[in-house]
Amino acid sequence: MTGTDHENRGYRRLFDPDGLTFGIGFPLTGTRESTPAVKEEVRLASHAESVGFDGLWARDVPTYWPRFGDAGGAFDAWPLLSHVAAHTESVALGTSSIVLPLRHPIHVAKSAATIDRLSDGRLVLGVASGDRDPEYPAFGVDAEERGAAFRDRVEAIRAIWREEFPAVAGEWGELEGDLDVLPKPTTDALPLLPTGNARQSTEWIADHGDGWLFYHLPEKTLRSYLDRWRELAGEKPFVIAVRVAIADDPDAEPEQLHLGYRAGVRWFREYFRDLEEYGLDHVIVGLEADDPAAAMTTFAEDVIGGP
């Protein structure tokens, strides 16, 4: 069971005990099948912070698989978040999510701690087992063993952060106590939020995660997940991602989209208030709009800050 040694500045920003908080996911321009314009992504990141979003979330998609239809914003999560850290001040920086079986734990530990230091403690890590089948042979990873690899890497990464000259081993390799990995993060360890089921049991996630990051769920299903989560994990945070398209008519009723809705701001305001009452801690908004900056402002003013 993890303690509180992971509660860095970003974690505290996202999981304010006073209520539901909101983040927004890259690519902020909505460019999902090619490479977004860097200056526009950074401009929108700064705008999101200025209007009141609490988190900026970058995805880890190592390769582009056209059949999947989503390049995830194209940029590698580590340099992207490092660049964004230099152009923002206090907003949390999150990964949604680093695919641990495809990455070496020493690299993950070092890259994450570096960004955490550069951002003065703002990094929160969603971590996943992955879902794009061709990537496993591309990296020489046995897809059938990804669940075990995920567990091994969580253990190794935390040991690397918490210990000087750690002694830890797994199928990825071995540290024998004669090498250290620097820098260490601003807290003893960084927050790790398993994403989806990550090929693990809910009990394992509750015991070993610092929270749980999940996909959009129907309200009835979400309530059952939250009830079970509270039984197992107590007050550890629960996060979901929701696709949001704001209709021109503020009174528009919801239209189902893949993993979210198109609706008017009044409906979204009530919807998120309901989710807050259920006990949800944070929402990663996937905002779809022709004018992303205007949509961010509308969401912040009329949904987050609405009457």
Written account of the structure:
The protein has 307 residues and is of the alpha/beta class. The chain has one domain: TIM Barrel (Alpha-Beta Barrel). Helix content is 37%, strand content 19%. It is built from 10 helices and 12 strands. Strands 1, 2, 3, 4, 7, 8, 9, 10, 11 and 12 form a 10-stranded mixed β-sheet that branches. The chain is globular. It starts with 8 loop residues before the first helix and ends with a helix. The relative contact order is 0.15. The model has no long low-confidence stretch (mean pLDDT 96).
Beta-strand share of residues: 15-25%
End-to-end Cα distance, whole Å, is 40 Å
Order of helices and strands: HEHEHEHEHHEEEHEHEEEHEH
The overall strand count is 12
What percent of the residues sit in helical stretches (DSSP H or I)?
25-40%
Gyration radius from CA atoms, angstroms: 19 Å
Oligomer: single chain
On the 0-100 scale, what is the average pLDDT? Answer: 96
- Please report the number of helical segments: 10
Classify the secondary structure makeup into a structural class: alpha/beta
The CATH architecture classification is Alpha-Beta Barrel
CATH topology-level fold name:
TIM Barrel
Q: How would you sum up the global shape?
A: globular
Main beta sheet: strand number and arrangement?
10 strands, mixed
The CATH superfamily turns out to be: Luciferase-like domain
Provide the CATH top-level class: Alpha Beta
List low-confidence stretches: none
Total number of distinct structural domains? 1
